[in-house]
Amino acid sequence: MIALNSIRQLTDAIGRASDVTLTAYALADGSVLRALVQAAQRGAHVTVRLEGSIYKDGGGVGAANRACVSALTRAGADASLVRDEGGSTLHLKGALVDGALFLDDRNWRNDNDTIVRDDSRRNRKMVADAVRGIGDAPSRSFAVRKGDALAMEARLIDSARNGETVLVESESFGRGNPVYAAMDAAARRGARVRLLVSRRIAKSNRREELALDALRRDGVRVGASERDEKFAVVDGARAWLGSANATSTYANAGEFDWGLRTAAPAVLERLKAAFARRWRASATL
Predict the structure, then answer these.
(1) b/e map of 152-167 (b: 16 or more CB within 10 Å)?
(2) Is residue 80 classed as helix, strand or coil in its secondary structure?
(3) Phi/psi of residue 134, each to 5°?
(4) Last residue of some domain: 91, 108, 136?
């Protein structure tokens, strides 16, 4: 069972916990970092893993991650950066708080994030293994590797029949992944497919522009939003959400990224409402 949660619920749980493990691609100074520091200072066992090789780090994310690790280490936490010479390996945003699993599509920023609490024992184990660098095989509804997460999203989109609505959001988007192929095929067979991407990235990435052009020619309606999430909803009744972008490169398909299939009504309503709100405010591409 999964349920919607919030940053406040996460920080409250950390404030009561004796054992906390959290991962993120980037962690900024804010309420989550403060909760982690305070938990470590009062003697809780706190483990934090952040990405150490930030892609095109023009915004000082790497420096911010190093500052977080320093602050946590001074407080007594087990905090470190994860590095891999082949590229980014830690895009998963997960938190285990006294065994309860929280998942975030972004990086534990605020309540605009879609944060879910997952009660599955198997999913908790998969995230705990991922923190230790072990990529477990996916289940039918959960994955901790990017390739597996995107394959799961593609299977959901492939299930869309003629006339059904498909809503997809991805911060960045490109060819060469199964989500692209599934969206293109769904549009060509008559599904009503809409895609929202990040305006910032779409305007600065020629390869992404070409990929979006190809989708539009096959009937996908494309919009650009100032905000973004990572999810897909088919027929308003079944969804995928996660931390994995449907990016053009598939070389990093093994990186840690979560993906989750769900039909939970509260989650579906949240995703549909978020998409509708951003679509109304989006610029057509």
Answers:
(1) bbbebbbebeeebebb
(2) strand
(3) -105, 120
(4) 136
